[in-house]
Amino acid sequence: MKFSMIKTKVTIFLALVLFSQFAMAQGIDISGFARTYEGVNVNNGDFSIVQQTLNLNFEKRGNKVTLKANPMAYLYNQDSLSLGLREIYMDMYFKNFDLRLGKQQIVWGKADGVFITDIVSPLNLSEFLLPDFDEIRTGIISAKLDYYIGNSTIEAIWIPQFAPTTRPDANSIWYIEPEFPVTPTFDWSQSTINPSLENSEMFLKWSAMTSKLDFELMGGYTWDDNPSMHVQKQFGINNTTTPPTPMLTGLTITPQHHRLAVAGGSFGAEILGVVLRGEGAYYNGKYFQTEDPSAEDALVQKDYLNYVVGLDFNIGSVILSTQFIQKYILDHDELMSEDEFQSTATFVARYNMLRETLHLELFSYIGLSNKDALIRPKISYDFDDSFSLHLGANIFVGDREGQFGQYQDNTMIYTKIKYSF
Fold it and tell me: Is residue 410 part of a domain?
């Protein structure tokens, strides 16, 4: 069975290569990259990742219609081939508006490395936050209308079928097994959202650009990409105590996605050579875990705010950027599993040398609430416009309870060699 699956994937891959030759003959523009990526765990010397990637972009442009397809192939550890269409869509151009239909990646907001209003495209977190962000976002089948009014744009999006966040497999180094007092039973019967008009998602954004300010206002009626865990407890009697007392004997956990209403916006402005960025969103209808015995299914519904403020500036030839990010749960109570405030910061420093061919970069997530961090130094060298070499590290520090500290055993050094065409 496994051999049959590999054979099928190889056949599809070869067909893709043959299609590329046909596309070139038809005058279709082809671009993309090939990349080899290896990461070594510094704690035990094991390869954390061995990945080969082929990314192809096919594009056929016309005066009124453009077609684009972006297949991507990942080969892991010699025998695990993952094929997919990241995007495949059609653009149609009219006098005052454009229409894009198909599977597409949609990017909103001003924040770097965090997702506040940038919630239209679901995320692939199977390798945590390590891939490039255009690879973390996944394409979503949707219809997108951009209507132009002077210097402003109204963007409307309709998504007929919900797609959740992609999580790590149970055998992945990025999978963190939750702890339970007893071994749970999972009921996945409620985890799928059936495609229908009633279950579709809708987003609306108004953006405008002036000489001093660039801003966006957005709203959405969507599904929570991450399922809430409905917990039902089973109790028995502990006869070893006097008097006999109730005893937890079982847990049934039912993952279920719930509706969210979201409203927010973002802005960017340059003041005396410093770029000030801000972004925020109000989420209505989120379910949080709680230890409150009166709560149904160990869940409580609360609203929350998520916001970020950032600065971009230069000191000499060094490009710097920093952000403060905070999540605030309204009407919080102490029995909830999440804290009322969760604060994070990011810091980026970049320096280019040797006529813009050697690039030094430091990117860091800093968990202010949990005192943990992900530190990502990187050196890149461009041999020419198409060929580059990257050497870097992903360093996880801090307490295991933190978002980044929980992966402290996954600290790695890596290399990437990339050829673009």
Answer: no
